Amino acid sequence: MGMFESILLTIATAATPLLIAAIGELVVERSGVLNLGVEGMMVIGAVCGFVAAALTGSPWIGVVAGILAGAAFSLLFAFLTLSIATNQVATGLSLTLLGLGLSSMIGESFVGSAGVKMPSLYIPYLSDLPLVGRLIFGQDPFFYMSLALVAGVAWFLFRSRTGLTLRAIGDSHTSAHALGIPVIRYRYLAVLFGGACAGLAGAQLSLVYTPQWVENMTAGRGWIALALVVFASWRPLRVLAGAYLFGAVTIGQLHAQALGLGIPSQLLSALPYLATIVVLVLISRNRRLTIMNTPASLGRAFVPER
Hints:
With 306 residues, this protein is mainly alpha-helical. The chain contains 13 helices and no strands.
């Protein structure tokens, strides 16, 4: 039971940053913007979160720093793609490269330094229950924030007037503009939210998953988060399921290495990314479903008539 419980706990920890980053990107793409800079925003959130926590001794200050760093990067992305109307794909890729380089520079003097780990929740009696105690009542705050984000985004997109307006912009920004909806303002706010989520996901990596700074510690998780949005057909609850599926694959390969199954470690390390490719290939075969759920204006620049 102890081994099984430990595996479930590590799956939840591995899935949480994917879930947070993907749910933020889902909102961005629902507005019609394609942000390929998630990886860069995650890694800048990770280094800023770690540095802030290490300097102050408070993991919560690290959380705030990670969110602000991701949001700042997203504002740069929004200015370039929404105000100047640069190519969204090229801009996102450029910001990822910028984030990787800048994070290495910021964190250079902190490599090998002891980190500040975010403590897990403990509720007397409830956290001590067999199996479900630690899984439900003994997780770190990021776990609960990720579930709250999924519930909040699901309600926002499908139950609130503002969320319906955002989806309308993603489906046809021209029609939305003709109705007097401030398309650029909505998209700015959506991109800002997505960047804040990416920064929060990065902070989870350096404050919970691996409480230290390691160069390029996101290790492609931003790209997996992007794939998760497509995998989930832009639906929040499917993002939740997909994040835990990929989290299980990630943890599964680590346990397989520990058991010494004779499979090359390089192949096992590549499993999460191979799974991403397989899932995307399978989704692309159902072209009708993909077209039905994809925001029609996704990735298309919008320049309001003056």
